[in-house]
Amino acid sequence: DTAVSQTPKYLVTQMGNDKSIKCEQNLGHDTMYWYKQDSKKFLKIMFSYNNKELIINETVPNRFSPKSPDKAHLNLHINSLELGDSAVYFCASRPNGLSFGGNEKLFFGSGTQLSVL
Amino acid sequence: QKEVEQDPGPLSVPEGAIVSLNCTYSNSAFQYFMWYRQYSRKGPELLMYTYSSGNKEDGRFTAQVDKSSKYISLFIRDSQPSDSATYLCAVPLFSGGYNKLIFGAGTRLAVHP
């Protein structure tokens, strides 16, 4: 069973379109994240939810809107896609977002490769 | 200055070589240090973590922290082609009441037979 699953795996779309990426985790974790990885492999946090509550909101254009219907799901909707949005988007989860004891690792999905043409 | 700096490489070594991967960090308050490994077209996976200073060994992998120079290292002994991946160092950063994991840029490693 896949622990953190994202769909779709690949997304190719035109500039100006609106698209969504879905994420589900079956680990019973409280905290979920969206990370963006650019072409140089730099992995940057975008958002985090803890028990459906937004706890981290980095400096991300408001065209990006996360939604967490329950603690097992965290979706990412992107409006008016731009060329610069092309990247790999990773969903991740961990037991809770309150602290890092060193052994509380992030579990990542396999990523969604978004290409904006 | 970024919280974590890492040379992106790429680094190419022959099989059996000892590999040294390094990061520097800016905040002396950081306590935990992690190394993630990311294979092509996969998400990162935690490889090792260390607390404070010193070494931690796990098989062919050794993680080392030098807090005096704010330097973290990952050594791979007897490197194998299966070690070919991107290695990302990471530190938890406390901000806005919550911890978030900050990653270095990642170093791409290729081990050739």
Could you give the count of β-strands of chain B?
Answer: 11
Q: Which pair of chains has the greatest number of interface residues, and how are they split between the two chains?
A: A-B, 26 and 29 residues
Distance between the termini of chain A: 34 Å
- Poorly predicted runs of chain B are none
Task: Please state the average pLDDT score of chain B.
Answer: 91
What is the level-2 CATH architecture name of chain A? Sandwich
Structural class by secondary-structure content of chain A: mainly beta
Blueprint (SSEs and pairs):
The complex is a heterodimer of chains A (117) and B (113).
Chain A: E1 4-7, E2 10-13, E3 19-25, E4 31-37, E5 43-50, E6 53-57, E7 64-70, E8 73-78, E9 87-94, E10 107-108, E11 112-116
Parallel strand pairs in A: 2-11
Antiparallel strand pairs in A: 1-3, 3-8, 4-5, 4-9, 5-6, 7-8, 9-10, 9-11
Chain B: E1 4-6, E2 11-14, E3 19-25, E4 32-38, E5 45-51, E6 54-58, E7 61-66, E8 71-76, E9 85-95, E10 98-103, E11 107-112
